[in-house]
């Protein structure tokens, strides 16, 4: 009986889309178990935009968004490299690095990443500040059985979690589109204004499964 209760505590699933407006996922401890698995509506896409907000005090490497397929563990990964002080976008297992961001601890950061599969160009928007466009990979879509994870980085499809790359902190407002969001729409997202919700992932209608100690709480707001 205790074993059954433990399984229920460790794994919670939103069977139907759940409105998380005004909510956040809290990852309260370093672990290679706790994560949130997201369900996307599109198994095959080329162009992509991913936006999310995060709040952490980590001073080490950590994954912010991890999408893997059976053939590629890093099909769409957003990763902070602490040693080199750079935000990395891994697309189709190819990496581009972005330096110079003021990635301060203990405040909310908004990060959007766009990728054009035809040109192979990727671009980051960090708290509304855009990066240069860099080439990563072109000529093929992200296809197959996609697994999207928050809280961990996937070194294999759906697993291979590394304790030292886990995310500790809060995460909110995760959206994903199968096209490149316009600069104006990205700025609306950053500013918390009305914007077009993601058509692959949308925070107000999110299908997800929680494994381990991850809490759903009211979003932390800072008053000045």
Please, could you describe this protein's structure?
- β5 (62-69) and β6 (72-81) form a beta hairpin.
- The chain has helices at residues 2-10, 183-191, and strands at 11-13, 23-27, 35-39, 48-55, 62-69, 72-81, 86-91, 94-99, 109-115, 121-126, 129-130, 134-135, 147-150, 169-177, 207-211, 215-218.
- The strands form two sheets. The chain has an eight-stranded antiparallel sheet. Strands 2, 4, 9, 10, 11, 12, 14 and 16 form an eight-stranded antiparallel sheet that branches.
- The protein is mainly beta and 224 residues long.
- It is globular, with a radius of gyration of 16 Å.
- The chain has one domain: Jelly Rolls, CATH 2.60.120.
- It has two helices and 16 strands.
- Residues 1-15 form the signal peptide.
- Keywords: Calcium, Disulfide bond, Metal-binding, Secreted, Signal.
- This is Pentraxin family member.
- Residues 21-222 form the Pentraxin (PTX) domain.
- One of its GO terms (molecular function) is metal ion binding.
Descriptive key words:
single chain; mainly beta; Jelly Rolls; eight-stranded antiparallel sheet; disordered N terminus
Count of discrete structural domains: 1
CATH class category label: Mainly Beta
Q: Could you say which overall geometry the principal axes of the C-alpha atoms support?
A: globular
- Percent helix, as a range, is under 10%
Average of pLDDT: 90
Give the biggest beta sheet.
8 strands, antiparallel
CATH level-3 fold name: Jelly Rolls
Uncertain parts? 1-10
Structural class assignment: mainly beta
